[in-house]
Amino acid sequence: MAKLKITRANGEVTEHQITPRIEYAFELYAKKGFHKAFRDDEKQTDIYFLAHECLRASGIEVPVFGPLFLDTLVRVEVLDDDPSQ
Q1: N or C terminus: fewer CB in 10 A for the chain?
Q2: So what's the pLDDT on residue 53?
Q3: How far apart are the first and last CA of the chain?
Q4: Domain for residue 85, yes or no?
Q5: Domain count across the chain
Q6: Domain interval for residue 7
Q7: What local confidence, expressed as pLDDT, does residue 45 receive?
Q8: What is the pLDDT of residue 84?
Q9: What is the mean pLDDT of each run of 10 residues along the chain (85 residues)?
Q10: What is the DSSP string of 10-33?
């Protein structure tokens, strides 16, 4: 599975695995399967939602998903998973 590199407006940069918990939350939000959503829709908003869920799951307090949360982001990059981890 891939992971996200999240750069926040406060300068903090973190990397987060897209775990089954994150996939589950995404599928509830998108109302479709994880892989189908990215294959068919290719929306950047979906990447931002994953970033929101990754940060929440790691214990970081973030605003509700929406414009206030998006204002806390500078960049979200999708990285290949490192199979050695």
Answers
A1: C
A2: 96
A3: 11
A4: no
A5: 1
A6: 3-79
A7: 93
A8: 56
A9: 92 95 93 85 91 96 96 94 59
A10: TS-EEEEE--HHHHHHHHHHHTS-
